[in-house]
Amino acid sequence: MQDQVLQAFLIKRLAQAVVALLGVATLVFFIQHLAGDPTLLLVPEGATQEDIDALREALGFNRPLIVQYLDYLGGLLTFDFGRSIVQNVPVMTIISARLPYTLALAGGALIVAIGIGLPLGAIMGLKRGRWYARAAMGIALAGQSLPTFWSGILLILVFGVTLGWLPPSGARSGLSIVMPSIALGLLTMATFARVARTSVLDEIGKDYVRTARAKGVNTRRLFFRHLIRNGSIPVITVAALEISNLLAGAVIVETVFAWPGLGQAAIQAIAARDFLVVQAIVLLGAFASIGLNLLADILYSVVDPRIRLGRTR
Amino acid sequence: MTSRTTQLLASMLGRQVEPSSGLSGGRQRSWRPVLPFIIIFVGFCLMAVLAPVLAPADPDAQNLLGRLRPPGTDVRGETFWLGSDELGRDLLSRIIYGARVSLFVALLSVLISSVLGTVLGIVAALNRGVVEMLIMRLVDIVLSIPAILLAIITVAVLGPGLQNVIIVLAFTRWPRYARVAYGQTLGLVGQPYVAFARHLDVGTPRLLTRHILPNIIGPLVVVATLEFGLMVLFESGLSFLGLGVQPPTASWGSILSTGRNYVSTAWWIATFPGVCLFLLILSVNLIGDHLRDRIDPRSRG
Amino acid sequence: MTKFGKFSAKLALAAGVSLAVLATASTGAMAQPETLVIDLVNEPSSLDPHRQWNPDSYYVYRNIFDQLLTRTDDGEIVPNIATDWAYADDSSIIFTIRDDVSFHDGEALTADDVVYSIQRITDPDFASPQLGQYNQITGAEALSPNEVRVTTNGPYPALLAQLVKLSIVPQHYVEEVGNDAFNLEPVGSGPYAFGEWDRGVQVTVERFDDYWGEPGFFAAAEFRAVPDAATRVANLLAGEANLIVTIDPDLALQLDGADGVEPRFALTERVGYLKMNTQFGPTADPRVREAMAAAIDAQLIIDGLLGGFDAPTSQMLSPAHFGWVDGIERDGYDIERARALIAEVGDEALEPMSFATAPVFDQRIVQALQQMLTEAGFNVEIEMTDMAAYLARAQSAPEQQADMSFGRWSCACQDADGVLFPLLHSSSNWSTWSDEEMNGLLETARGTLDEDERMAAYEQVHNLVVDQVPLIPLYQAAILYGVDSDLVWQPTPNESMFLNRMSWAD
Questions:
Q1: Looking at beta carbons, which residues of chain C come within 8 Å of A88?
Q2: CB-closest option in B65, B247, B260 to C382
């Protein structure tokens, strides 16, 4: 019975996901083409109209928009993401070179966000009402309030130039990932702090803690064991949901730190009107977002069978 | 993101976030801890409104021979209290006028996106079937695109500028509200009294104003507050990428993004707007967080 | 995935021996490294020299490939792959090809490779974005193993200047592996051979030991992509990069105060200018354009804003161009005259005017220009769009164009024809100016190889520009680099970056 429900749920959600991805592809395709094609960016200054027209034709941008769209969709069906007209390589070459860096940065940022966010959240829950609990919340939210293009350059100047502890930018050594991870991780630290606080408050409210407290028994070890067991699932789930936010935040962080991920590639491709590269990156981001949301929902239902999958949006 | 997270967490633990009884409901948490931040926020708002009165100089008036002067410098009888910027403009005046742009962009984009999103969310919840499907799939589509990327792609079409930035942000963010409004309304429609009211055919306006809006406004206000801080950040990010308001108009984001090239030679240009931005966003976030605690029954107590 | 494997290995290494890395990083600054690190803005779009046309690409590939001709640091066109050339008639020229050049794979470079390169870049089906620079060439043929005849469709005085940019590619290799593989693993005959392209991170080139000419000093060079100017400066200050491109004068001043690094600059062939819409809006009135010219204090912009690196000019050329005429001088800054002219025109001059620009241009200059025009009484609104939209608008029908736009023009050919013809001839899509006399002069200068006749025509063109103000030339732009002070290297007007002209000071 449960299996059938799960199956029906999955089929429905997968269908929705396909519709959404198709929608993303369509929406972004038409928005981008409204902005004009890249031909003028490719030619040297002073190119004549004939040269420009010839190049436009060679690149296929003189075809009716609907033809270009169908052509693109046709390619997508066979998982052909097309070629970059700027770099003259298949889009997949660009994506596959940069994806690992983006994933590594997302991972690094998660470690920072969780590493700082959870302790802050625990303080907020355990010491509720005290001033330092409020200060902890303030710190968590402060991280979310800094424009990364500013905090980024400050980090670079302090740790990269003045102190010389870390490479200022790039991805030449493994240490290069530290600063971008911090800049990006600070942005989502508050989310984890909040989750941790909720978990702690939940645990405190449980009967065994109350009873133990009433009896004056020290339950610290038991408490933390329970906390870790019950609290890890929400953290993992929120982490899954946060990844797609991190991908978006990475756009600016990667530019500042010259981190060779997809965000930086996306900015460059948008400016260069390299449509198919933008399409692929956006689709990948959408795919990740939809997939991780689905995963989070399934995770809930596994953890807590009381949640009926069919009702989740 | 965060409201969905809260909901999911709550649901995971077997408790749906109940439609709240509005801003005034339930046991109150004191406003005192966030009072300083409310004051900061109100202060910035006053600064924006009173800019022409407060600003000692024309924010766009340049003096190419008085560039990059440190705070307190006198140039031709004029004192640059916070120093001058890369074109010899009075930084203090630019920050005061910049408050207008930064707050205006955030306020208007939040207003437009929240109204649009709420209306569509309620419409979807009350018209289950094709309309619901169309709206909610569109919500899925827009939400799944990394927000800042969608904003950049759209600005590339419309061109930068105050008005376009607001349109772009509103267009990018409305689905947040739509999803919350939809979920909350769906929950309400299941409630007996709403079902009863619908059965009596009280008419849509009355249904909305009497039964639905008052009950869903709380969570929406929380989302809007948290979004406000994000919109300020987005505007500054777009400025950094050269896609914000048109020069020479000052916004905190635009001053900061030029100022970051001068961190080691003229620290004041980035520091003052940076601190203002930080305080503004932090205040709004703290106020939003506080509001959320008041409204979300789970974290109250 | 191999790349990620490599990256994880780096990560593991870093975790394990981070202290060691730190230690070597701090001592590494002492010894002069064998590998030169250069921070560009973006990674090259392409290393196929017949494809993309942008500095980030040609900074790299001009070291991997040899060009048919080259320029000295002083700008003189000198032999390179071609040792000698002679005009057979007005529309054909015979080049003698060097016979001691071999490609990185060991094959000899012959006249056939030169012919192939010309045919490839002019082949419409190949669709090179650079086609416009070579489309006057109608044919190329090998007369002997070391002689090539190039024919043009009539006299084409800028031909040699264009061939300075023509890289010679190996016919045997390109035909064997195809265009795509060639783009990924280019083989040339230059002083440096392609090493590795770590996409998004860096391109590495290695010294080619059998190079026929001046050998490279550095064993290798890395070209890295660092989009943010402030980050590039930080890299230079931290000793992570030895040479950085594209910084503005204020960032350059930051380097002045730091140890071991310095800004270095060259006056380029780029000219900053204000172009007006001469057909629609207030700027259709010549008095309005004259008033604008009088309202702009170019010297103040240069001294106050640009750190004095740039040089004022009254013609659309730099002294590095053929066609530069000494002594062309427009009336200087005179705000009273500007105001008087505006009063004479009346209300029409006070209408709001749009001022188009793009983020790649220095926004401080644009804002300063706007301020100067505002002070004279004009009502000017800056309209910044991204580069693609800016270019599209600049080439739209005149009634859709902005009232004025800021630009920095370079034909990368150092010949007046590449600047003045597209900007001022009525047939050009870059021009709103339509004047029979101007058209005639530009056509005369384009259609003859007689240098005196050309110079005479260009002198008249410059005078027409001063009199009728179809555009306002503002300044000859400097290009600024940040360099390690020990690096021996002089930037050039044509923005080249030849590694074999660089070395460490002793």
A1: 45-46, 48, 51-52, 179-180, 183
A2: B247
